[in-house]
UniProtKB/TrEMBL annotation:
Its main location: membrane. This is Sugar ABC transporter permease. It comes from Paenibacillus bovis. Gene3D superfamilies: MetI-like. It comes from the Bacteria.
Amino acid sequence: MAANKAFNATRGDKIFDVCNTIIMCLVLIVTLYPFLNVLAISLNESSDTVKGGIHLIPRAFTLENYSVIFQYQGLLQGAQISILRTIVGTIFGLISASMLAFTLSRVDFQARKFISTFLALTMYVTAGLVPTFLLIRDLGMINSFWVYVLPGVVSAFNVFIIRSFIDGLPYALQESAKLDGANDFTIYLKVILPLCKPVLATIALFLAVGQWNSWFDTYLYNASAPEWTTLQYELMKVLQQSTQQSGAVNANDMAKQMASISPESIRMAITIVVTVPILVVYPFLQKYFVSGMTLGAVKA
């Protein structure tokens, strides 16, 4: 009887493993296929792409699509500003969110409920595009780099995620640090931050992706300042120019070359250019990302 139960359990485990493997393979295919399809189209000749039928492997391999994109004048300047805003915006966002989250996690902070409620309201109610533009204009941040950083330096969502993680830490750690003579800033810097590496890495990934992919704020506030342009905004202009020049007759050399490339090929190449940097960074933060999201969600 025991042998039959062990055999059934072993057979059931094998069946579960096979089904689980099949499901995971299907999920992997569904996840990877769109990216591989975009990569294949971006590496395929534009004239051949129009025929369709490109799936995982380019039918007529070429790097012409990327060569057209990288010949654009403002691309290098835009890449530098995008990297700078991603680094600065992520650092400022982490500092502000972690300091506010630490303050709201303190049980002896009297206004914690009021500020938490106020922050939560900002997630549901916004001023709107026009009032926001007028505020930023009155603050003198039009045509400046800080318009990328300061307006979104405090995010209620990020604060709540970090605070939930801190609430899951033993409060006795802070009490023992106080007994040793540490002040609040020392506790935050030397006790809380080292323990918050998983959630900080998670928030850093959120902030970095948001900063890297953002282009609409450049369009609104820095369109007339080429020195503060971003990579995504320049690539958007490349795509727009390729669409407009596709039917042009009198055009310069750059426009003529872009006119020979289909907008779909340009679009796929642009997608790869803006996606690869994030894909390169993500593996280094993956283990922190998973643990940060699970542990940070233990307490609300």
